[in-house]
Amino acid sequence: MAGIGKKLKEIVVASLGFDSLSGTRRLATRYFLSLSVISLLAILGALLVQHEDRQSGSAARLVNIAGRQRMLSQAITKTALLVARSTDAAERQRLLEDLRGLGELWEHSHFALKQGDPSFGGSAVNGPEVREMFAALEPHYSAMSGADVVTGSSGGRIRRSKFDSRA
Fold first, then answer.
1. pTM value surpassing 0.85
2. Per-residue pLDDT for 14 more than 70?
3. Whole-angstrom distance, CA of residue 131 vs CA of residue 100
4. Whether the predicted pLDDT of 167 surpasses 90
5. Angle, nearest 10°, between helix axes 23-85 and 89-114?
6. Distance CA 18, CA 6 (A)
7. What's the CA gap between 161 and 150, in Å, rounded?
8. Which of 18, 45, 140, 144 is found 20 to 30 A from 39 (Cα to Cα)?
9. Taking 70 as the threshold, does the pLDDT of residue 1 lie above it?
10. φ, ψ of residue 150 in degrees (nearest 5)
11. At residue 153, what are phi and psi to the nearest 5 degrees?
12. What's the rounded mean pLDDT across residues 63-79?
């Protein structure tokens, strides 16, 4: 191995004509070769950092969507409780509009995490462990997605409405 490095050095020195160059010229040539190698390494390092940044940016978007899911489920619960306790018809109607919007965004975000959605900046490539977690979550998701919310009473009858826009 050391013999190969020595031969390579001899070839480079001979091809660059180091033997015939003056000391100053030899030093300048080595300096520029060193700068070229450093520049090449800096460019490669920048490319690696850019690649890693793209990878972590995708993961960060998924984490943000998952965090938003938690916030949305809490907001849906709070709004549903406010609807159930509201006695003012106008306030109840406003809360129901909010609930529908929250529900639609919650379902869209769930789909984006589970299946992938380019509008959220990427696609979900879920491994087997994550797919199992989604399968375990499915009954709870379906129950919440299909839940009815009391929207008011009309002549003694209670009307129910899903926050889901498909209802």
1. no
2. no
3. 27
4. no
5. 140
6. 15
7. 7
8. 18
9. no
10. -65, 125
11. -125, 145
12. 89
